[in-house]
Amino acid sequence: MPVMPRIQTKCFGDVEYSPDAIFEFPNGMPGFETEHDFLFLERPAAHPLMFMQSLSSPEVCFILLPVLAADPKYKLRLAEEDLAALRLPAGRQPRIGKDVLCAALVCAGGEERPDPTANLLAPILINLKRQIGIQAIQTQSEYSYRHPLISRGRQEELVAC
Amino acid sequence: MRRRAGESFLIGAAIEIEVLEVCGTRVKLGIVAPDSVLIQRKETQITRDENITAARSVRQQNISLLLNKVAFRPVDTPVKNLTDATILTTKCT
After folding, report:
1. What value of ipTM does the predicted structure carry?
2. Please, what sign has the CA dihedral across residues B46, B47, B48, B51?
3. Cα A101 from Cα A108, distance rounded (Å)
4. Which of A69, A72, A117, B73 is least surrounded by Cβ atoms within 10 Å, i.e. has the fewest?
5. Distance (Å) from the alpha carbon of A92 to chain B's nearest alpha carbon
6. CB of B27 within 8 Å of any CB in chain A?
């Protein structure tokens, strides 16, 4: 067995990874323009959440929720430049789960924003074949960048359930 | 203010915005501004703020609360395909 490289992660300590599992974000993401390489980590207890850990900065990690877990009828409206950045064919929207992974960044709560939200307007998209990722800001979409994961005032009724 | 393609307007003395082209519902703008002025789409700024807030929220206690509070809808094929392929994800145990 070859010796696998290891990284320090924000949430899970020291983790071994395969270099084949690195996803490239050529443009980074708004606010994180210099982060180009990410690993996607998951833990069975946290399903269906995933963790997007920067390879170069241990403190940079995002929580992802597959958009279909937030909204089973979620529809993509990617701009042509986003399709090009993902190296996908122009003129048609990719199929979620088949051509692309599409997941929303989750704000997990805390002091800044107590109620957890998911950014359905600007999801993370991954070309599964090429392992290239972008954050697509959809200007022609009606989704919220603060989609509540718990409906307000009726805490017992769960939106995402 | 109403402008046609080819016309421009000024913001202060140093920033000029020209309407280059109007095509249906889309308008192409040309902007002349000093290097010190950041020009970006508004949604990029919103996304940046959201991303920074999201990154800051990634703390063990918030994750536990999130998992306790929200009964996430199980996702079948799309996620499973991704996570089953060991090449695509590193499992953390």
Report:
1. 0.89
2. positive
3. 20
4. A72
5. 19
6. no
Higher pLDDT, B87 or B21: B21
Give A47's pLDDT tier (boundaries 50, 70, 90).
confident
| A-interface mutation test, from B39, B90, B93, most A Cβ less than 10 A away | B90
Average pLDDT over residues A144-152: 86
Q: How far apart are CA A145 and CA A122, in angstroms?
A: 7
Q: Strand locations in B1-92, DSSP E?
A: 8-11, 15-23, 26-32, 90-91
Q: If DSSP codes are grouped into helix, strand and coil, which group holds residue A151? A: coil
A10 lies within 8 A of chain B by CB: yes
Answer whether B92's CB lies under 8 Å from A12's CB.
Answer: yes
pTM: 0.82
Query: Distance between CA A19 and CA B35 in Å, rounded?
Result: 39
Per-position b or e across B22-42, b if 16+ CB within 10 A of its CB: eeeeeeeeeeeeeeeeeeeee
Alpha-carbon distance of A130 to B71, in angstroms, equals 32
Q: How many CB atoms lie within 10 A of CB B18?
A: 16
Token digits of residue A123: 């999801």
Q: What is the pLDDT of residues A61-118, one digit of tens each?
A: 999 999 999 998 999 999 999 999 999 999 999 999 889 999 999 999 878 888 999 9
CATH number at A6-148: 2.30.290.10
